[in-house]
Amino acid sequence: MAPERLRIGLIGTVSYFNHHFGRAIEAVPEMEAVAAATLGRSANYIQHSLGESLDEYVGTYGLTLYEDPWEMVTREGLQAVYLATEDHLQAHYAIEAAKRGLHVFMHKPWASNLEDADAIIAAARESNVVILPNMPRRFKSACAYAQEQVQAGVIGRPLMIDTHHAHHLKFGPWKSDPMKAAGPEIEVGFYECDTHRMLMGAEPAKVYCVSDNLQHPGVPFVDNLKATVTFDTGAFGTLSMYYSTAFKFLPGGAIHLVGEEGGIVVRHADVTIITRAGQETITPEVEPYNTGDIRNWVHACLGLAEPKTSLEDGRRTLEFCLALRASSRLGQPVTLPLDDQPEVLSAARPYSLDEFGDMPEPPRASGVSA
C-alpha cells in the first residue's frame, strides 16, 4: 500500500528556496507538489529572483500555475503550503494559511522580528496546524553529526565555539530592499546563530557585535560582522560573517568547538574529532540543505513522526540574530532575552535605504504588487 501523500502548493516563486523545494520533491516520496501561486509578480521579476524563467521552473516539476494563492488552495484541494515569498510577506501568508487549516513550511528567515514570530506561533496553536521554520543544519549535515558527538559526551562539556561564514550580499528585485529583505544578519546569520545554539547546547545570554558596510557604499546592509557571545552555561563563543567576498574564502563556513575532554573541527563536509585518544576525520552522509528539513515537516503534517524542530526553537535563533544587529547599532553588549527591552528591540529594526549613504538607483523590475 502506497504511503499517504501531502498535497502541497507553493506560495511565491521569487526565492532560491523554490529550488530546495524542487529537490525535495524527488527525495521525499510522501510529498505531492501540485501547484504554485505567483502573487501577480511579472515574468521578469520572477526570473531575476529565481535565476531561471517561471516556465522552466514549473515545467521541470509539473506544477499548475495560479496567481491567487487561495484560489490555488481551493481548486487543488491542498493540505499544506510552502512559502517562497519576499521575506516581509512570510508572516502574512503563514497566518492566513493557518486560518484556513493549512500546514506551512517557512523558508529562512522565517520571520524578521519577534512580533511576527509570536503572531505565527499563536496562529499555529489556535489553528492546530504544523508550521515549521527552516533550520537546515539540524538535518543530515556535518553540523548535525558534530552535535551527535557533543550530545554523546565525546568532547565533554562544551567550553568555546568559533564559527566563520563567508557569503556574498544578495541583490535583486527585492533582495536589495531592506523593507522586503530581512538582511544578512538574519538571512545568512541564521546559520551561524543556530549552529552556536545546537553545538553548545546552550542559549546566548550576552552578545557584543561590531558590523559595518565596508565594501558596498550605498547598499542598505552590513557586509562584515564580528561578535562575541556569552552563553547561559558560562561558556563563550565568537562568530565572524564575511558578506563582502567575491572569491572563495572559507566557503560554507568553518567551525571550531572546544570541550573539556576534546575538540571538534567542522570544515565543509568533514568533521575532525580530537581527544586524548587521538584524532579522526569523518565525512558523514549528508543530503542537500533543506531536504531533511522539508521531510521533517511533511512527516509531522502526516502524523508519521514528531517534528524535530519548532517555531519556539526558531524564535530563539531569530532573537540571537536580532541581538547581533541591536548590539552593533547601540555600540554595546546586549543581554538576552530581548523581551521587555524596548531600546534594544528598536535597535534591531530593519535598515533604512540611506543608512549607509545614498543608494544608487537600480533598474527595477515590474510587477511587484504585494
Q: Could you please describe the fold and organization of this structure?
A:
The structure is a single chain. The protein is an alpha/beta fold and 370 residues long. The protein has 2 domains: 6-136 and 290-309, NAD(P)-binding Rossmann-like Domain (Rossmann fold, 3-Layer(aba) Sandwich), CATH 3.40.50.720; 137-286 and 317-347, Dihydrodipicolinate Reductase, domain 2 (2-Layer Sandwich), CATH 3.30.360. It contains 12 helices and 15 strands. The chain has helices at residues 17-27, 43-50, 54-61, 69-76, 90-99, 114-127, 142-151, 184-187, 189-200, 291-301, 311-330, 342-347, and strands at residues 6-11, 31-37, 64-66, 80-83, 103-106, 131-133, 158-166, 204-212, 224-231, 236-242, 254-259, 262-267, 270-275, 278-282, 334-335. Helix 1 packs across helix 10 (291-301). The N and C termini lie far apart (43 Å). The relative contact order is 0.16. Residues 362-370 have low confidence and may be disordered.
